[in-house]
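For the sake of transparency, this paper describes our internal protein records without simplification. The tokens are whole numbers drawn from a learned vocabulary of local backbone shapes. One such record is reproduced below, unchanged from the form in which we store it.

. . .
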Amino acid sequence: MSEEAKQAEEAAGEEPSEEEFRAQRALVDHQTDWSVLVLCVGIVLGALLLRATPAREGVTLAGIRLPDVCTVKRVGLGECPGCGLTRSFVLGVRMRPEAFRLHPAGPFLLLVVLAQLPYRAARLWAYRRRRRSGRPEPDPDRFEPAWRIVRWSVILAVPLGWLVKLALP
């Protein structure tokens, strides 16, 4: 076995150093930040381009009514936990109070999406500055407790909003 092969085999079994781990984690976080930023920009642009129908039962794009995408609703089984979120976002970006009626969690989730825009942009800018200056990556888990709260709030918002919607007349 060659010397290079032995070194590669030894390196494969070793744990990465703290600095290597942070650099790998920063790259993954960087890619995640780009993905979330693009997704949130798409959601906001979509909400700005769409219009709710006058009776608020659907949405239109350039005056053309879009079909319902909810399979549960199309089959005739009522509304699923996500029904009304698109219309709620469409009205929410226009600051219409009806957004709460269409889905009580819609305005909260829209705020989470809107908050991601400056947050992710700032993280991407900071990543770029750190790369150019050669500064070490910060501790990747320093905000984990806060993100755990945000994550669970978003996960629970949709079904809780649906239950509130079902309870209201």
